[in-house]
């Protein structure tokens, strides 16, 4: 068979197949259009590790923000509107809504995953890895590092979950990087039990063991600062113990210096 004829047959078959797909899709659309909504199916995509939002919550949000669509034609349900109404709830990162031939509206929700919890005078809130701040949730508390004290952040100064001030955004970005570094280091993940912000705005590392508080300064240059903490434990602490000296504050925020008080 000549090459040209083979090519012609291939193109013809491809067009026929594409046509069948279009016809099949149109028939399925018309079939769905005839159906009325018989219910709502909710899936929490990450329910195995996060519990901020339940299926019951999602149903309540949809009823409150969108209303009921049970009994309505499937093709009249505003799927995009449902999705947009759900992501307005701060603990929800994304939402997808669709209909299938079973006559039901299906909704899948992905929750916002926190990496840090901040405790301030005005209350507590979370941050995800992108620096989006959102309130604590009523029926679930995520086990993430806590930063308390004079935290220079406020939900009231945020716009759509993002701090308006560039200084605040930079500080938050540094803290998120610092927490990620600690969490990925076996030694520091076990050793550091708490992070506080003192009246001067310095981060203070509280170790699990010992009475020393480490004045860390800003969340920048954290690898060098942790190296100085290691130097303190390996060189300074043994010498102090031999002389019965007990230090309460160890400043490691200055390059090349370890200041003990």
Description:
The protein is of the alpha/beta class and 261 residues long. It folds into 3 domains: 32 residues; 73 residues, membrane protein fhac (Ubiquitin-like (UB roll), Roll), CATH 3.10.20.310; 147 residues, Rossmann fold, CATH 3.40.50.11690. 37% of the residues lie in helices and 26% in strands. It is built from 6 helices and 14 strands. It has a 9-stranded mixed β-sheet with strand order 6-5-4-7-10-11-12-13-14. The chain has a 3-stranded mixed β-sheet with strand order 1-3-2, covered by helices on one side. It has a two-stranded antiparallel sheet with strand order 8-9. Strand 8 and strand 9 form a beta hairpin. It is elongated, with a radius of gyration of 28 Å. The model has no long low-confidence stretch (mean pLDDT 90).
Order of helices and strands: HEHHEEEEEEEEHHEEEHEE
Shape: elongated
- Radius of gyration of CA atoms, rounded to a whole number: 28 Å
SS-based class: alpha/beta
Classify the beta-strand content into a percent band.
25-35%
Low-confidence stretches: none
Distance between the termini: 93 Å
Please tell me the overall pLDDT. Answer: 90
CATH class assignment of the largest domain:
Alpha Beta
* CATH T-level topology of the largest domain: Rossmann fold
Would you identify the CATH H-level superfamily of the largest domain?
A: Cell division protein FtsQ/DivIB
């Amino acid at each position: 068979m000549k090459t040209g004829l083979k090519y012609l047959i291939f193109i013809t078959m491809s067009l026929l197949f594409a046509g069948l797909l279009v016809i099949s899709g149109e028939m399925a659309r018309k079939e769905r259009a005839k159906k009325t909504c018989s219910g709502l199916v909710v899936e929490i995509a990450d329910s195995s590790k996060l519990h901020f939002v339940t299926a019951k919550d999602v149903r309540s949000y949809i009823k409150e923000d969108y209303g009921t669509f049970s009994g309505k034609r499937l093709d009249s349900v505003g799927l995009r509107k449902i999705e947009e109404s759900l992501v307005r709830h701060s603990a929800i990162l994304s939402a997808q809504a669709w209909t299938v031939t079973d006559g039901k509206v299906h909704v899948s929700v992905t929750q916002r995953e926190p990496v840090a919890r901040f405790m301030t005078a005005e209350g507590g809130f979370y941050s995800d890895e992108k620096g989006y701040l959102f309130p604590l949730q009523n029926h679930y508390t995520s086990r993430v590092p806590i930063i308390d004290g004079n935290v220079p952040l406020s939900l009231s100064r945020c716009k759509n979950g993002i701090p308006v001030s560039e200084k605040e955004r930079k500080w938050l970005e540094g803290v998120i990087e610092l927490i990620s570094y600690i969490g990925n280091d076996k030694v520091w993940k076990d050793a550091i039990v708490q992070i506080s912000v003192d009246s001067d705005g310095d981060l203070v590392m509280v170790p699990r063991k010992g009475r020393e508080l480490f004045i860390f300064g800003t969340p920048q240059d954290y690898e060098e600062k942790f190296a100085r903490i290691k130097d303190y434990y390996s060189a300074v602490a043994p010498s102090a113990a031999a002389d019965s000296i007990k230090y309460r504050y160890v400043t490691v925020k200055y390059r090349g210096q370890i200041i003990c008080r």
